[in-house]
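Form 7-S
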Amino acid sequence: MMKGSILIIDDEETLRGALSRILELESYKVFQAGDARQGYLILEHQPELNLVITDVRLPGESGLQILEKVKKLYPYCEVIVLTAYGTIQDGVHAMKAGAFDYITKGDGDDQIIVTVERAVEKSRMQRRIIELEKRLKTRYSFDKILGSSRAIRESILLAEKVAPTDSTVLLEGETGTGKELFAQSIHNASPRKSKPFVAVNCSAFPKELLESELFGYKKGSFTSAVTDKKGLFEEANEGTLFLDEIGEMNYELQAKLLRVLEDQTFTKIGDTRQTQVNVRILAATNLDLLKEAHNEKFRPDLYYRLSVFKIRIPALRERIEDVEEMAQYFIRFYSMKTNKQVTGMDPAFLAQLKRYDWPGNTREMKNIIERTLILTEKEILTPDLLPYEMFIPQQTASSEDFDGSMEELEKLHIRKILTLAKGNKTKAAERLGIGIPTLYRKMKKYGLE
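Output:
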């Protein structure tokens, strides 16, 4: 099993060959080049190289020039500079330019092997980190926020503008609109992206527990405090703390949060000293916090401190033009997840998606599409797969009434009653107030048999 791949650039063929044989015996794959030009050609065709070992003095470009170019083009590839004429100046230059090490020719084989092992391991670790960062950036980026409507694009534009700053952001929107996705995308587009992103739902904890979660406590501060505990503010130090459902935070605890926002200091439970942190705060709510402040349920000073920069995430019913794009995306995603060959939607299926009010917003759509993919045995999704509730007239913010036909509504109602009766036709007929022959006739008519 190969430990890694290495490129040796040295114009001394004998030394190059000897070093290559030593490393090959240690299970490394080794490439050789006599100058910079040959080395670059190999790098172009072998971009997964872990390590370049280069002589300082070469015909054409020097080893230090090679070092600078490799670190720029292949940041996960380490470079060891090898020389027969070591000088302090060259050594300092090499290390400043990012060399893993600067060693003199003639040093023992054991020393070179140990140095190479450390360099290759660092390269592998760096590659894993870069790949993880790429996946994270792809998963949580503004490009992953679905929709091209004006409403959602305006929200994305605001988020992109505030992301590079350290400003506090308040994300407003109904449940399921994607506020946490916005928060993660803002973090990943900020200078803090390499630091922690810590999220907490303020509605998930009672007041005392939320305080200890956020700020931590000292050993002995209460009966079960057997050790010191770091709070989420400390966990998020140098990074971002996302406070979801901030409107549910206890009124007294809000005062302590305000202190952190103002001077980035707080006192742990049971402690007498202040803890200093450097944390960016992103908060989210589905409440009207200004109204809550007027009703003395939320601190006005905290509201104004949180709302330095507000972004409203539109409800799905406010951007119906995005429904088709989003549905197609979720169909592709859940087709792979459920191993189904579903290629699209029946026009009536799409029409019902657009007609529906979506009280649960994007989260509800994801769940419904996943459910239909589990139920279907066809390549095209049809309306009969949708839950009955989607066809019931709703009192919505837009006050739109059900605009389907009476027959469609009757079919849906019969199907619901049959479900409630667990398929018992006699009970279903009784609940519907019709005879069993009439029920059978209607079931045949609507394809409910």
